[in-house]
Amino acid sequence: MSEQSFVCSGHHGGFLDRLTGGILHAIDHALDADDLARRDGFLQRLDPRVKIAGLMALVVTAVSVHSLLVLAALFLVSVALALPSHVNVPRLAKQVWASVLAFTGTIALPAIFLVPGDVLLRIPILQWPVTLQGLRSAAFLLGRSETAATLALLMILCTPWPHVLKALRVFRLPVMLVVILGMTHRYVFTFLQSASQMFEARRSRVVGKLSPRDRRRIATASAGVLLGKALHLSTEVHLAMISRGYRGEVHLLDEFRMTLRDWLAVAGFAVVVAAALFLQST
Length: 282
Known about the structure:
By secondary structure, the chain is mostly helical. It has nine helices and two strands. Helix 3 runs antiparallel to helix 9 (about 260-280).
């Protein structure tokens, strides 16, 4: 036998199983998001231009307000938009809130002790002061991050990706930026499919449990092969798109048309933004 084999073990959930499972999970997650974008929900029924403009206006408002109550209200508005759009709270908590809390929380935590101000209490033994101003700064950072991330996720989950790209061009974003976004989105799935096939082929040739050394060797070799495939596929995909007349503009069979529902949504977004700015200034 010219190809190396390993001692049989039948171990479930090994290195290659977990790696292949992770890739398939990423593909399933993307397919589920695409299915969600095509459901009959509140945000899904809106014109993509209205969604992007309205949600981005809410994001800008959330990061610019200086009132915790107004920020909390904007967060509740984002949740209220998610529920009738078939995006439930557990999904938001899993995909956004937990990760943002873990990442932003590590950045916001030192502010509780480092920002000078009125001392509320001291940490036992360490005697670190917890200040009111520090808690306020941490709350603003977490609140703005959670609200902005929730609104951004709603925009992506409730809008098919080609519609997002076309709407971005309507707002005069540079063609090069749209090309990069479109190429990246298309190529990620091609790359994941290629990686899945490669690891599935490797997995079918492994008849036993891999040692740590073999795992490292396979991971290193696979990374090199995937890098070579990535460079080759990126060139092939780009040339194929160029040969078919792609120049950065997104052309769809369905054209964007504003309806009464869309104009009412524009008015609703404008009222929320105006109310938030008014309340935080009073």
